[in-house]
Design brief:
The complex is a heterodimer of chains A (265) and B (287).
Chain A (H helix, E strand, L loop, with lengths): L1 H25 L3 H6 L11 H8 L1 H34 E2 L3 H12 L3 H14 L6 H25 L4 H8 L4 H12 L1 H17 L2 H5 L8 H11 L4 H22 L3 H5 L5
Helix pairs in contact in A: 1-13, 3-4, 3-13, 4-7, 4-10, 4-12, 5-7, 7-10, 8-9, 10-13, 12-13
Chain B lengths: L3 E2 L4 H26 L1 E3 L5 E3 L3 H7 L2 H31 L6 H10 L6 H12 L5 H8 L10 H29 L3 H9 L4 H29 L3 H6 L11 H11 L3 H31 L1
Antiparallel strand pairs in B: 2-3
Chain lengths: 265, 287
């Protein structure tokens, strides 16, 4: 019994080490970083964070990222809800093929879609707007949301639907007033996953924007490549990208394990 | 659950269908279109048949990155699946530590992929990184920008750090779903821990393990951002995986035709292997 917790603790320490190192770097001055190895900041400074919060090209990048992530989450979950209901309750023409086709988009490498997406979203005039990234990310988030929600919905007994129809509910009022509250945990988990995958993705987000809608992930690669050795700034920007993730994890912490099993354990 | 036959359900699926079709079919048509044509700029295209596909089949660079990709995916699956399962078995089943552990475990999954790369870059710097400095202090020569072995070690370690938690969370969800009665029956029979694992836990975990393998296979086969930030595909091209190769061809070289042929072959490989997994998974479920 004791041995198990030792293994678990060692593993969690391994997970935390790189995060600690990032925090450590973000509080150091550039001189100290270049000066050599130190396990904790000697001249504790918030300069890197100050730069980020005062420079519009930095903090706007965060705002841009959050904008497209939120748009994407709302679109993905809203469209996925009725579709997941259809897949969990009905058999219809081509349902299995459609489901697999949807999932196949989750398997599409973003690298394959970069170039055609740039063409497509330029053609419809959305290039360099948060909408381009938000819509592009639905490619893999909608299938995922459908998959997760379908799992949660299949766990709800069909008697619930039947009773409601007998009681005289129409489909829309049943769906919104009875069904959605029943699977609220599933909706939370699906939203969490859409948020997560949109937040962490870089390749599409970077290439579908240039100046006006530049996301934080692109702003960071620019720092890394052009202005040389600004490790402290890079580390601070990295630390700040962890915060939204930590907040959303906190909200779904009780459902997280079930969510990762796509609602079907 | 028995489902009702109802073709009007298509109306419920229609919004998703249209959205995904816009995002998936139009770009794929563009790719297919490019893959059979030759261009000399000015938006003039000429039919070139299967030239690009034939060229790709004899392209050593493609073969090399495909081999590297397969080795990488095999290595991380061989590490992450058993490790994830082991860690999940170490997790407490109940109590207030469960939430804490779950949140800490899930944290790497929410780090933007380029930040994962930067994080390990900073960790692995030979002079000021914890990992680089530590290994060198132990007398192990380590420099991930110069030695292919170090670069591979760092990339694999980074992926294990990043994604093993996904396997842990999946297996954990499977484990807590096993009813207590199973364990009590095993206790009555005096089953050893190994027997409990082999005959109760493992069979019950089959489903979540399949999902874990499927997801890890797909995602590791598409790995791009973390590696490009950490090693840029180097040293030389020793960590150049398929996506890195493709992005270099498509965005760097303006070789639309070859890049499009590459895209199609790449997508088909993933699609075929995933279809295989999916079919096996569904067959298991039907039993």
């Amino acid at each position: 019994m004791r041995k198990r917790y030792v293994v678990l603790t060692v593993y969690i320490v391994f997970l935390m080490l790189p995060i600690y190192w990032l925090l450590n770097m973000s509080f150091k001055t550039t001189n100290e970083i270049l000066g050599g190895f130190s396990a904790f900041p000697r001249d504790f400074t918030l300069d890197s964070y100050r730069t980020i919060f005062t420079d519009p090209s930095w903090y706007n990048a965060y705002i841009n990222s959050i904008t497209y992530v939120v748009i994407n989450t709302v679109i993905s979950v809203t469209l996925a809800l009725p579709a997941a209901y259809a897949f969990s309750r009905y058999r219809f023409l081509g349902d299995k093929h459609l489901f697999f086709w949807l999932l196949s988009n989750r398997m599409a490498p973003a690298a394959v879609f970069v170039l055609p997406f740039v063409n497509l979203y330029s053609a419809v005039g959305l290039f360099d707007t948060p909408w381009a990234v938000a819509l592009a990310h639905t490619l893999f988030n909608i299938p995922l949301a459908v998959w997760i929600l379908e799992g949660f919905m299949s766990g709800v007994p069909k008697e619930l639907d039947e009773t409601a129809y007998v009681d005289g509910y129409s489909f829309p009022s049943f769906f919104i007033r009875i069904f959605l509250p029943t699977i609220s945990a599933g909706i939370g988990v699906a939203a969490f996953f859409c948020f997560m995958f949109s937040w962490v993705e870089m390749l599409l987000a970077k290439n579908l924007t240039s100046v006006a809608a530049k996301p934080i992930v692109a702003a960071m690669t620019k720092t890394a490549s052009t202005s040389g050795y600004e490790l402290g700034l890079l580390a601070a920007a990295g630390v700040l990208t962890l915060i939204p993730g930590a907040i959303v994890i906190y909200f779904v912490r009780n459902y997280i394990a079930k969510g990762f099993a796509l609602g079907r354990v | 659950m028995t489902k009702i036959e109802n073709n009007r359900a298509w109306w419920l699926v229609l919004p998703v269908f249209l959205m995904v079709a816009f995002n998936a079919l139009l770009p794929l048509m563009t790719v297919v279109n490019y893959s059979v044509q030759e261009t000399f700029g000015n938006n003039e295209f000429f039919w070139s048949g299967t030239t690009w596909f034939q060229q790709l089949l004899h392209d050593d660079q493609f073969h090399d990155s495909l081999k590297r990709q397969i080795v990488f995916t095999a290595v991380i699956l061989a590490i992450e699946i058993p490790l994830g399962l082991a860690i999940a078995l170490c997790m407490p089943r109940s109590g207030r530590w469960v939430s804490v552990c779950l949140v800490l475990l899930a944290l790497p999954l929410l780090v933007p992929w380029n930040v994962v790369g930067s994080m390990w870059n900073i960790m692995a710097l030979p002079d000021i990184g914890l990992l680089g400095k530590g290994l060198n202090a132990l007398g192990i020569p380590y420099n991930y920008t110069r030695q292919p072995i170090s670069a591979w070690f760092t990339v694999v370690l980074m992926d294990v750090w990043h994604w093993t938690s996904l396997v842990v969370l999946l297996c954990y969800a499977g484990l807590v779903a096993i009813p207590d009665a199973y364990y009590q029956a095993a206790k009555v029979d005096g089953a050893k821990p190994w027997a409990v694992f082999r005959y109760i836990q493992l069979p019950k975990l089959k489903h979540v393990l399949t999902i874990a393998i499927l997801l890890r296979f797909m995602d590791s086969f598409m790995i791009y951002t973390e590696v490009i930030v950490l090693t840029g595909g180097g040293p030389g091209s020793t960590t150049k995986f398929l996506s890195i190769d493709l992005v270099q061809k498509a965005l760097g070289g303006f070789d639309l035709g070859p890049a499009a042929a590459f895209s199609i072959v790449y997508f088909l490989i993933i699609l075929f292997l995933s279809w295989l997994f999916y079919t096996l998974m569904m067959r298991e479920e039907a039993k």
